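Re: weekly structure request thread

Next one in the queue (102 aa):
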Amino acid sequence: MRQANVEKNGFLLRAIVCEKCGNKIVHPSDIEEYNRFLEIKGKTFKVKMRLVGNSYAVSIPKEIVGFIKEQEKIMNDMVSMCFNEAKKISLLFGEEEQELEE
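Done, posted below.
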């Protein structure tokens, strides 16, 4: 068995992999966090858009921000935003330079 990381939906899971058969055993706490992620991912949040000065603000539900803070341990106040499609805006939390388009 060797240690490895398994990626699911952009979520990194710690695992051990059998080199002979390829069977993977994922760390139990990572599975728990991944399941929590799936619960939040499946929800639709209704939030209000408010005018603040010359810009609009949208509140991000505490449940989402709390989950992100737990994952990154330190969350930056800055968020990258991208206007992907006519009715879709993406946010990227953290300092990583990644493409926001899916």
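The first strand starts at residue 2 and ends at 8. The chain has two domains: 1-43, 44-102.
Next request, please.
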